[in-house]
Write a structure and sequence with these properties.
- It is a single chain.
- By secondary structure, the protein is of the alpha+beta class.
- It has two domains: about 80 residues, S16 Ribosomal Protein, Chain: A (2-Layer Sandwich), CATH 3.30.1320.10; about 70 residues, no CATH class.
- The chain is built from four helices and five strands, in the order ββββαβααα.
- It has a five-stranded mixed β-sheet with strand order 4-3-2-1-5.
């Protein structure tokens, strides 16, 4: 028989209260259990001593018999000093997903294209200008490209929409 040290929910709707129990792993969450070894009230303050009550001696006994604690109960046991819990590390947790990565790449490509267009515009204006005027022209072209890039996209969308929708004759 596989023993599990887990939480069994009680309390009313939106007012949870848990018993820390030893149960057969196959039994339902709130069903039959072998022994109640503590309680957990998540509605109390985190520093309240009444939040988690645990019979440490019974917990040690059941761990020695082979009961496997769930993640939450393992945290309680670690705080009580009954069983050391290894810190977990998920290096992929903060990484963006596939779609977010694709969107970032598309944004980078659009920005790069806008910068190249600004550089070409600056290069076209540069031969006719002096060195001071050239620097001003390059700066102006970059500012213009940065402000026009979204407008150019909006114009392209408007043109595509106009082509798809037939003109209404009256």
């Amino acid at each position: 028989m596989a023993l599990s040290m887990r939480l069994s929910r009680g309390g009313s709707k939106k007012r949870p209260y848990y018993r820390i129990v030893i149960a057969d792993a196959r039994s339902p969450r709130d069903g039959r259990f072998i022994e109640k070894i503590g309680t957990y009230n998540p509605l109390l303050a985190k520093d309240s001593p009444e939040r988690v009550k645990l019979d440490a001696d019974r917990a040690k006994h059941w761990l020695s018999v082979g009961a496997q604690p769930t993640d939450r109960v393992a945290r309680f046991l670690d705080v009580a000093g009954v069983k050391e819990r290894a810190a977990r590390n998920n290096p992929n947790k903060g990484k963006p997903g596939e779609k977010a990565t694709e969107r970032a790449e598309e944004r980078a490509e659009k920005l790069k294209a806008a910068e190249e267009a600004a550089a070409e515009a600056a290069a076209a204006k540069a031969p006719a200008a002096d060195s001071n005027e050239e620097a001003e022209a390059v700066m102006a072209a970059e500012v213009e490209a940065a402000t026009e890039a979204p407008t150019a996209e909006a114009e392209a969308v408007a043109e595509a929409t106009a082509e798809e929708t037939p003109a209404v004759e009256g």
